[in-house]
Amino acid sequence: MTTENRPFHETEYIEEDGELCPILKVLVGRNRKPLSVYADTGCTTGIAVFKEQIKGVDIGEKISDRPSPCIMADGHIIGADEYLTTLRINGEEKEVVVSVIDPDKILGTAPVDETKPLLGRDFLDAYDVLFKGKEKRVALFKC
């Protein structure tokens, strides 16, 4: 096997509240703050954190003039400030956008019929799921 076929980082799921979860330990920001994050395929392209979770971290340059809307599961739209920062994991570095959600910045509500339902891990964990990021495709396989 050649080195390009080997992952640069591999970890086992971590148990949290009796469930096995895909949690990665990463370093965020200029001061390389350790942060445990869910490796998830949610709607966020970078990292989504609440304001209190990122307290004391120099996460970089703010790139939003106005709060970006984040739709919560209950239909509330909460504002998030966005920053450009560096995420590090096992020697790899990548610039990502950090959405810092401020629960005090309620921007309004979204009609339920306009929100996209989420397909959870209870279903997805029953199959082999392959996310092809560059191809923007997802494939499901019977186990």
Can you summarize the main beta sheet?
7 strands, mixed
What is the strand tally?
Answer: 11
How many structurally independent domains?
Answer: 1
Rounded mean pLDDT is 79
CATH topology: Cathepsin D, subunit A, domain 1
**Secondary-structure content class:** mainly beta
The CATH class, by name, is Mainly Beta
* Helicity range: under 10%
What's the helix count?
1
Named CATH architecture: Beta Barrel
What order do the SSEs take from the amino end to the carboxyl end, as H and E?
EEEEEEEEEHEE
The CATH superfamily name is Acid Proteases
Oligomer: single chain
Overall spatial form = globular
Description:
It is a single chain. The chain has one helix at 121-124; strands at residues 14-16, 19-21, 23-28, 33-38, 47-50, 61-62, 68-71, 76-89, 92-109, 127-132, 137-142. It has 143 residues and is mainly β. The strands form 3 sheets. Strands 3, 4, 5, 6, 7, 8 and 9 form a 7-stranded mixed β-sheet that branches. Strand 3 (23-28) and strand 4 form a beta hairpin.
Short recap of the structure:
This protein is mostly beta strands. It has one helix at residues 121-124; strands at residues 14-16, 19-21, 23-28, 33-38, 47-50, 61-62, 68-71, 76-89, 92-109, 127-132, 137-142.
Describe this protein with a few key phrases.
143 residues, mainly beta, Cathepsin D, subunit A, domain 1, seven-stranded mixed β-sheet, two-stranded antiparallel sheet, 1 helix, 11 strands, globular
How would you summarize the topology of this molecule?
Blueprint: E1 14-16, E2 19-21, E3 23-28, E4 33-38, E5 47-50, E6 61-62, E7 68-71, E8 76-89, E9 92-109, H1 121-124, E10 127-132, E11 137-142
